[in-house]
Design goal:
heterodimer, A: 98 residues, mainly alpha, 3 helices, 4% strand, flat, B: 504 residues, alpha/beta, Amidase signature (AS) enzymes, eleven-stranded mixed beta sheet, 11 strands, globular, ATP binding (chain A), nucleotide-binding (chain A), protein biosynthesis (chain A), EC 6.3.5.- (chain A)
């Protein structure tokens, strides 16, 4: 099972969209190495014959009647947004440059 | 009137029904208590004074008019700040949601309102319920009413401390790996994690969706049963909600009968790593149950030893996915770096500023476990362990009607003691995690004080899925037997808290 190093943490932090300082990366890499080391044996416990459980009490085909239920108004939906305009969420630029 | 705060929810409900006290008096007594002690405890992140008193006044008027009321109408309650409430802030203990107000009520909150229970406010927690000590709250730790230098457990330390310090007779908690039961254990209170799906999760801010469960927090077993019946039942807003009826939980608690029941001691949840005083009290509880006619049997759950590892893969994986929604677009904090940043840079800066260390650790760990190339070895393997844990439970419940263990391996530790050692912190949940992995219900009740430090010890009961009533049936008996040996409730032995005064 793989180890986890500082470069891995930097890569994962980018994937998770969390900016990290050098100091944070150093600390996080050390802490995560200990945690990963303690949980890595998990892959040795169960064989191929054991099915995975995704959900403790399986339910299937959970549907509701196809009718309009409770919904938030446009105003309510925007109430907690950091920025909005014309009844929509307003976001910074998606692409770099002009 | 100070006696009002010491009443159980059941006793208070009876006095309200008999018109011996008013709901306004009861609610004001709790608010006064919060004002007097919460400066020292920090159980509440928000106190909902006006609305609570308004609801109480409406209950009093309805009662005077002869309306039919829910038995708990007018009994005040505190709500963990992971559960969304209209008209009050919900922070999840995080800077990223500071000042945010939900546009809707959680289903459990709707049910409290339907029963007309005044909501006293929102209680402190580890950020996004990630922790075992409430020290990971962005708004400062909650302190244990038994010793203000010690942790109240976590993540629901605020709810447990609020009922232990007599600030509220009842509270709501959430339990993903022990966040209701472990705080109950270290504060000498009662906490119940219902069967997964037994109580709607709609409006509980998600950490790990396949493990999270809302449940009652109280000072007595019966009070938890009363609250459990209010909040339980099917909810179409939660697709994992069970369609079963809630069950006769209050009746089970009032009946309290163990004669002829088989109670299984889990071999793997005792011994090494467990504090001596915890084990002494645990064995005394076994003797009491035996004296009441229960048969104590030994059961083995060999795969429980892998539960913690599997949990620390499944929980962060699901959390990293659930917390992706905090992107600075739809709600909560937005941090805009200098220049003309793109949304990606805004997200990176927002999440860096808004999340605390433990949340970041779990998001990174979850992102790692779900990464291409590692998914099968980590997340996939952990899900297989989950199957093995379920099989262990199934085998154990063929030999026993209910299982029993200490709730936590130790009593409350000192604030700061495990903050720099995440792994040591995680070990607190070793006895509570298996129930979440399998979806079975669990209850923690006070088992006495450890000889070496005089701090509360918790006893955990576990029942098969959908058999929550058994927890109350056995819990009520053990509670009565223990209180007989103590000469009253354990909380009567709690020291300083009765004298503390500090503003809030």
């Amino acid at each position: 099972m793989a180890e986890i190093n500082r470069d891995d943490v930097a890569h994962l932090a980018r994937l998770a969209h969390i900016d990290m300082t050098d100091e944070e990366l150093d600390r996080m890499a050390g802490e995560l190495a200990v945690i990963v080391d303690s949980i890595k044996t998990v892959s040795e416990v169960a064989g191929d014959d054991v099915p995975a459980t995704s959900h403790p009490i399986p339910l299937s085909n959970v549907f509701r009647e196809d009718v309009v239920g409770e919904t938030l108004s446009n105003e309510e939906a925007l109430l907690g947004a950091p920025d909005n305009a014309d009844g929509r969420f307003k976001v910074p630029a998606i692409l770099d440059g002009e | 009137m100070t006696d009002l705060i010491h009443l159980s929810a059941d006793a208070l409900a009876q006095k309200l029904a008999a018109k011996e006290v008013s709901a306004v008096e009861a609610t004001q007594a709790c608010l006064d208590r919060i004002g007097a002690v919460d400066g020292a405890i920090n159980a509440f992140l928000h106190v909902n004074t006006d609305e609570a008193l308004l609801v109480a006044a409406e209950v009093d008027k309805a009662r005077a008019d002869g309306d039919t009321l829910h038995p708990l109408a007018g009994v005040p309650i505190a709500v963990k700040d992971l559960i969304v409430t209209k008209g009050q802030p919900t922070t999840a203990g995080s800077r990223i949601l500071e000042g945010w107000q939900s546009p809707y009520d959680a289903t459990v909150v709707k049910k409290l309102r339907a029963a007309r229970m005044p909501i006293l406010g929102k209680t402190n927690l580890d950020e996004f319920a990630m922790g075992s000590s409430t020290e990971h709250s962005a708004f400062g730790p909650t302190r244990n009413p038994w010793d203000l230098d010690r942790i109240p457990g976590g993540s629901g330390g605020g709810s447990a401390a609020a009922v232990a310090a007599f600030e509220a007779p009842l509270a709501l908690g959430t339990d993903t790996g022990g966040s209701i039961r472990q705080p109950g254990a270290v504060t000498g209170t009662v906490g119940v994690k219902p069967t997964y799906g037994g109580v709607s999760r709609y409006g509980a801010i998600a950490m790990a969706s396949s493990l999270d469960q809302i449940g009652p927090v109280s000072r007595t077993v019966l009070d938890s049963a009363l609250l459990h019946e209010v909040i339980g039942g099917h909810d179409p807003h939660d697709s994992t909600s069970l369609t079963d009826p809630v069950g006769a939980l209050v009746e089970a608690a009032r009946m309290g009968q163990v004669e002829g029941m088989r109670i299984g001691v889990i071999e793997e949840l005792q011994g090494e790593g467990y504090q001596a005083g915890v084990l002494t009290r645990f064995h005394e509880s076994l003797d009491l149950l035996r004296s009441a006619g229960a048969e104590i049997v030994e059961v083995s759950c060999p795969n429980f030893r892998y539960a913690l590892e599997a949990y620390y893969l499944i929980m962060p994986s699901e959390a990293s996915s659930n917390l992706a929604k905090y992107d600075g677009v739809r709600f909560g904090l937005r941090v805009v770096p200098d220049g003309a940043p793109t949304i990606e840079r805004v997200m990176g800066a927002t999440r860096a500023a808004g999340f605390g260390d433990e949340v970041k650790r779990r998001i990174i760990l979850g992102t790692y476990a779900l990464s291409a190339g590692y998914y099968d070895a980590y997340y996939g393997s952990a899900q297989k362990v989950r199957t093995l844990i379920q099989r262990d439970f199934a085998a154990a419940f063929e030999q026993a009607d209910v299982l029993i263990s200490p709730t936590a391996p130790t009593t409350a530790f000192k604030l700061g003691e495990k903050l720099d050692d995440p792994l040591a912190m995680y070990l607190n949940d070793v006895a509570t995690i298996p129930a979440n992995m399998a979806g079975v219900p669990g209850l923690s009740l006070p088992g006495g004080l450890a000889d070496e430090d005089g701090l509360p010890v918790g006893i955990q009961l576990l029942a098969p899925a959908r058999q929550d009533a058994r927890l109350y049936r056995v819990g009520a008996v053990l509670e009565a037997l223990l209180e007989e040996t103590w000469g009253g409730p354990l909380l009567a032995k709690a020291p300083a808290i009765l004298k503390i005064a500090g503003g809030k």
